[in-house]
Amino acid sequence: MPADIRVVVADDQEIVRTGLVMILNAEPGIRVVGEAPDGRRAVELAQRLRPDVCLLDIRMPGMDGIEATRRLAGPAVTDPLAVVVITTFDLDDHVYAALRAGARGFLLKDAGTALLSQAVHAAARGDALIAPSITTRLLKAFADTGPAGPRPQPIDPLTDREEEVLAAVARGRTNAEIASELHISLSTVKTHITALMAKLVVRNRVEIAMWAYETGRTSGRA
Predict the structure, then answer these.
(1) Which residue in 43, 161, 187, 203 has the fewest CB atoms around it within 10 Å?
(2) Is the four-CA dihedral 15, 16, 17, 21 of positive or negative sign?
(3) Keyword annotations for this protein (predicted)?
């Protein structure tokens, strides 16, 4: 029997934090091992407990969720933890910053129990999940504002199939959905995603999706 997914929850609103803890502990295979009222405490707990997933609110006093994400999962972190950002603010520019800081997923607090559980499970297995209902709207909105600098093009050009997988990831499709759409096996999808991460020099499918939007590659080959 697989071990439970260990989670640390951080939110400055006690009633929200308590609710998230209750929801997660009621889910089979998930166990909350720590909770924090702010980012600084969340980082301390996460670095000490090494949970499988950290669920962080964006707006917290002192150290916010963005800085906490950067310290736990940023490019400079040798052994990054999986972070899922949760917020009440749809299309808040802080969300884009959190994804840039290394978050593996983004959910709204009204996403529902099922999607919350899916996001935790996805992050724990090294995948990433952004609520499908807001994936394209969220990433396109921030891509339209322009990235901090021009995105480097891959040294090795993407294959036609990789372009198709890239566009599907940007639309918020899961691996299973991509396999079905493109009539390929699940293992082949995973192989293409691994190749995309290597070619684009990104860390996860969230960054693959951001790269697709920032380079106008959301509908297949540009």
Answers:
(1) 187
(2) positive
(3) DNA-binding, Phosphoprotein, Transcription, Transcription regulation
